[in-house]
Amino acid sequence: MKIEHLISTMHQADAAFLQEIKCVEDVLVVNQTNIERTDEQVTSDGKRLRMISTEERGLSNSRNMLLKNAAGDIAILGDDDLIYLDGYLDKIQKAYQEHPDADIIAFSFTESLTQNTRRQFKTARKLNIFTISKVASVELTFRTKPISDADIFFCPLLGLGAKYGACEENAFLADALRAGLTIWYVPETICYLRPDPPGRMKWQQGFNEDYFVKRGACFYRIYRKAFALFSIAFILLKKRSIFRDVPIVSAWKWMCEGRKLYQKDEEEQECS
Prior knowledge:
Layout: E1 3-10, H1 18-21, E2 26-32, E3 37-42, E4 48-54, H2 59-69, E5 74-79, E6 82-84, H3 88-98, E7 104-110, E8 117-118, E9 125-126, E10 140-143, H4 144-149, H5 168-178, E11 183-193, H6 209-223, H7 227-242, H8 248-268
Parallel strand pairs: 1-2, 1-5, 2-4, 7-11
Antiparallel strand pairs: 3-4, 5-10, 6-11, 7-8, 7-10, 9-11
Domain Glycosyltransferase 2-like: 26-124
Protein name: Glycosyl transferase family 2
Keywords: Transferase
């Protein structure tokens, strides 16, 4: 079982930043910068490091380039602001041995070493269309062959740097489920986030019209015909926390607007 990290980053001069991430396996990096170049090296401990520098922009585009160039049997999806914990590789290998039917396994991460781990469930379980919504991209690992065979990629209309912001990982998981792939969640912590750097992008600022339009677009891309069901459930579940200053009717109207905008964009850009 060959494992490889797939890491998205921007404006790196070289691969030195990987030392902070503490990867102990092969690494493929897509570095969105101002040149087009591919570099490769083998470290003294036999680790293969590849960096593809590109002028292309957008997180989903970066991850799609990673998918197309992946060389491992198992991929660990990551960003440049992570630090992997001691023993993370053993946890991943053990999970795939215990769940041989898994095409994708989501793990857990923590915001810092001093905070509690972000866990969806206390025990391992299969995920479905109802339970993929809280999975973060940095929790994802997957077998590369089933993903490639099913021709699954990240939607370039979603993700940081794209028109509709986040949720690209949830659309990716929804596509995997529709393709008949099996997704497991294992409550083992594999990494934590470094302190929030000044340049870290955020996909939305506050709960306003822009937020709900983007959320509507994301919900349509993920849930398709069940858009109304999941959108109404989202509004009802969140009404006490985010609808104090935003009328529920307005939120629903903006989410429907987001759906229409996404449908129009999807007709012009292949993203299905």
